[in-house]
Amino acid sequence: MSGLLDQPAVVILAAAAASVLLLLEVALPTVGLAGSAGIVVGAVAVWGAHRIGEDWWPLLGIVAAVAIWGGLIAAHRASTIGQPAADLLFVAGAVGYARTTHDWSAAATAVVAGTFLAYVYPRIAAGAARLSSATSIVGMDAFVGTTATVADWDGGRGHVIAGGTRWSASGPEGLAEGDEVVITAAHGLSLTVGSGHG
């Protein structure tokens, strides 16, 4: 097994796989399997590069590429310069490593892996943007935008029934029992409501 991991092409493939897994972890709203697997696969790439014993510094281009891609995903922004720069850094780092190891099959692997990542990154970024803009379906934020019925009201505070449960709420004065209101925000265990269809 260690003989297989001592191949520059395998180091580059492991680095590419780790890159995809780490980018998925940044894109997903939870800490989990993708990031852990990315760290393990990245460690395999580092271990393989160490065993090969040639100059490994060109692989820093891959690290820089992942940092740029990850930063763009985390910031939820598209960049006309950032993505191509990251694509170029990945390919330059991987091809540079292939050159230091004098393994041209690794160079071909680098180009294929770089092309794959240039194709996959926009899809991961778009998925992350969809996730961040999606309406929450759990917790108090899930109520925002839905309607509730006033149970009791005094001044600008009272209780509403939302999702079959009675909640403390604040909102405009003049609401009365039975009024329908729209939930505009959730803070802790209290809702903020606005006038609805009354």
SSE order: HHHHHHEEEEE
> Count of helical segments?
6
Mean pLDDT: 88
Strand count: 5
Indicate how many domains the architecture comprises.
2
Structural class: alpha+beta
Helical content stands at 55-70%
Structural description of this entry:
With 198 residues, the chain is of the alpha+beta class. The protein folds into two domains: 2-133; 140-195, Beta Barrel (OB fold (Dihydrolipoamide Acetyltransferase, E2P)). It is built from six helices and five strands, in the order H-H-H-H-H-H-E-E-E-E-E. Strands 1-2-3-5-4 form a five-stranded mixed beta barrel. Strand 2 and strand 3 form a beta hairpin. It is rod-shaped. It starts with a helix and ends with a strand.
Please sum up the structure shown:
Helices cover 56% and strands 17% of the residues. With 198 residues, the chain is α+β, with helices and mostly antiparallel strands. A hairpin with a 2-residue loop joins strand 4 and strand 5.
Give the tags.
5-stranded mixed β-barrel, 2 domains, 17% strand, 198 residues, rod-shaped, OB fold (Dihydrolipoamide Acetyltransferase, E2P), alpha+beta, 5 strands
SSE topology:
Layout (H helix, E strand, L loop, with lengths): L1 H4 L2 H20 L5 H20 L7 H16 L6 H20 L2 H30 L13 E8 L2 E6 L2 E6 L9 E8 L2 E6 L3
Parallel strand pairs: 3-5
Antiparallel strand pairs: 1-2, 1-4, 2-3, 4-5
Helix pairs in contact: 2-3, 2-4, 2-6, 4-5, 4-6, 5-6
